[in-house]
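[step 3/7] inverse_fold.run input=structure_tokens len=152
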């Protein structure tokens, strides 16, 4: 069996099932008709840059770096949701007031969402300034609505 095919199957399996150990992965590959050694699985995990991520059930499972980043983004959005006091617009800026000490993590949450209209953001202790690409009311209002959508 070619490495590409085996590694594609590994990615498919970790996306479909909560695989916690190399042994479980080997068993699933065996069920799929792929004979593999533990050393090969170990190399594949390294080459695929698989990491342990928290599953929805709270257990650790193999996942991709992208899954880990999504998990972090979800946590940041939860913190964002609980930290916002006000969201205001002036010109091409969206100004967010947070509870003390929460602005930087709220800025990280906004950055992780990768809204296309954002040029950049600056976070202090309790305030986040977000510069929107176009000062027209449409883009600024759209961003404000998206942010309110996160907290409601």
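[step 3/7] decode complete -> sequence:
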């Amino acid at each position: 069996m070619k490495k590409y095919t085996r590694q594609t199957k590994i990615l498919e399996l970790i996306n479909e099932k909560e695989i916690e150990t190399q042994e479980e992965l080997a068993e699933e590959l065996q069920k799929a008709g792929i004979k593999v050694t533990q050393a090969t699985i170990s190399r594949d995990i390294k080459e695929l840059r698989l990491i342990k991520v928290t599953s929805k059930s709270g257990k650790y499972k193999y996942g991709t770096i992208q899954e880990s980043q999504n998990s972090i983004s979800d946590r940041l959005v939860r913190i964002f949701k609980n930290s916002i006091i006000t969201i205001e617009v002036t010109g091409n800026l969206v100004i967010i007031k947070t509870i003390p000490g929460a602005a930087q993590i709220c800025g990280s949450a906004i950055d992780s969402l990768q809204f296309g209209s954002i040029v950049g953001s600056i976070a202090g202790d309790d305030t986040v300034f977000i510069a929107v690409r176009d000062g027209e009311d449409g883009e600024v209002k759209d961003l404000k609505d998206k942010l309110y959508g996160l907290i409601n």
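[step 4/7] annotate
Residues 72-151 form a domain with the Gyrase A; domain 2 fold (CATH 3.30.1360.40).
The chain has two domains: 3-63, 72-151.
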